[in-house]
C-alpha cells in the first residue's frame, strides 16, 4: 500500500533538505536556513507520528530515520563550525557520540544478532536538544544576536545529553550483547 511509504517519503525529504540548509548556512542566510531546518524538523516529527499512528513502520524507515537525523544535525553543526559560529569541539562531540552509536550498532549486528534499532528516551531527548539548539542558533544568527544569554545554557544541555545518552547506549547495548551471547563456560 502506497500510504505506508509516506513516513519514508518524509524522511527522504529531510535528507534532501540537508544540502539546501547547508548551502543557506554557508551563504549566511540564517533566516532561510532556519525555515528549511524547521521544515526538516517538523517532517521528522510527522513521519514518526504517522508511522506509529497508522502502523506504517518499515525496516527501511527504522534505519533511514535516525540516519536522516544524524545527517541533518551533524551537517548543521559542521556548517556552523566552518563559519566560526560554534567552537570545533561541539560538533566533534556530536559526531563522536554518533560514531560510537553507529559503530556499536554495526558491531552488535555483525557479532551478536540482527539489530532492531530502537531509540531510547535519552537518545530522543538528545536529538530534540540538538535540533532545538541549532534552530535557535540559526534564528539568533539571523538576527545578529550570536551572543544571546541562552547560548551557554543551550550548549550545556546539549553536552549533558550527549554524555548521558552516549553512556546509556554503550551500557544498554553492552548488556544486551552479554545477555544474548552464551558464556564461554557453557558447553
From TrEMBL:
Kindly give the PROSITE patterns that the UniProt entry links to this protein.
CDP_ALCOHOL_P_TRANSF
Q: Which family does it belong to?
A: Belongs to the CDP-alcohol phosphatidyltransferase class-I family.
Indicate the enzyme's highest-level EC class.
Answer: transferase
Q: Report the pathway entry.
A: Phospholipid metabolism; phosphatidylglycerol biosynthesis; phosphatidylglycerol from CDP-diacylglycerol: step 1/2
Per the annotation, which location comes first and is thus the protein's main one? membrane
Superkingdom:
Bacteria
List, alphabetically, the Pfam families matched. CDP-OH_P_transf (PF01066)
Q: Which UniProt keywords apply?
A: Lipid biosynthesis, Lipid metabolism, Membrane, Phospholipid biosynthesis, Phospholipid metabolism, Transferase, Transmembrane, Transmembrane helix
Q: Where, by residue number, does the polypeptide cross the bilayer?
A: 89-109, 121-138, 150-171
Give its localization.
Membrane
Any idea what this protein is called?
CDP-diacylglycerol--glycerol-3-phosphate 3-phosphatidyltransferase
InterPro entries assigned = CDP-alcohol_PTase-I, CDP-OH_P_trans, CDP-OH_PTrfase_TM_dom, CDP_ALCOHOL_P_TRANSF_CS, Phosphatidylglycerol_P_synth
Membrane topology designation: Multi-pass membrane protein
Q: What is its EC number?
A: 2.7.8.5
* Catalytic activity field: a CDP-1,2-diacyl-sn-glycerol + sn-glycerol 3-phosphate = a 1,2-diacyl-sn-glycero-3-phospho-(1'-sn-glycero-3'-phosphate) + CMP + H(+)
Amino acid at each position: 500500500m502506497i500510504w505506508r511509504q509516506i513516513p519514508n517519503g518524509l524522511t527522504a525529504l529531510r535528507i534532501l533538505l540537508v544540502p539546501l540548509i547547508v548551502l543557506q548556512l554557508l551563504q549566511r542566510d540564517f533566516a532561510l536556513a532556519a525555515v528549511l531546518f524547521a521544515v526538516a524538523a517538523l517532517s521528522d516529527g510527522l513521519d514518526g507520528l504517522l508511522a506509529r499512528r497508522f502502523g506504517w513502520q518499515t525496516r527501511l524507515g527504522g534505519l533511514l530515520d535516525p540516519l536522516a537525523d544524524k545527517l541533518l544535525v551533524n551537517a548543521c553543526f559542521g556548517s556552523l563550525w566552518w563559519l566560526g559560529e560554534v567552537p570545533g569541539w561541539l560538533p566533534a562531540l556530536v559526531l563522536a557520540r554518533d560514531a560510537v552509536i553507529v559503530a556499536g550498532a554495526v558491531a552488535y549486528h555483525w557479532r551478536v544478532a540482527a539489530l532492531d534499532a530502537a531509540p531510547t528516551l535519552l537518545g530522543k531527548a538528545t536529538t530534540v536538544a540538538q535540533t532545538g539548539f541549532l534552530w535557535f542558533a540559526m534564528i539568533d544568527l539571523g538576527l545578529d544576536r550570536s551572543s544571546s544569554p541562552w547560548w551557554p545554557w543551550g550548549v550545556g544541555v546539549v553536552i549533558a545529553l550527549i554524555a548521558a545518552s552516549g553512556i546509556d547506549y554503550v551500557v544498554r547495548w553492552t548488556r544486551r550483547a552479554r545477555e544474548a551471547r552464551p558464556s564461554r563456560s557453557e558447553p
